[in-house]
Design brief:
By secondary structure, the protein is of the alpha+beta class. The chain is 26% helix and 12% strand. The chain has helices spanning 20-23, 25-37, and strands at 50-53, 56-59. It starts with 19 loop residues before the first helix and ends in a 7-residue tail after the last strand.
Amino acid sequence: MPGSRRVVLAGYDAPGWADVVADRTDEIVREMTGFLGSQKADVPAHASREGVHAGISWRIEGSGPR
């Protein structure tokens, strides 16, 4: 995926049942906020304010940050 970033958690060999976020919360939060903070938030381009996708109903309210 263009713009994606891979992060390897040093010293973490997760078994299949591991909860990586619970085990390494601080590192994951730091990496995610750093990455997301560097991205520009665009105004949603979709004209619809509500709909259904894959059986999930959604609705947009408000206008976002001012």
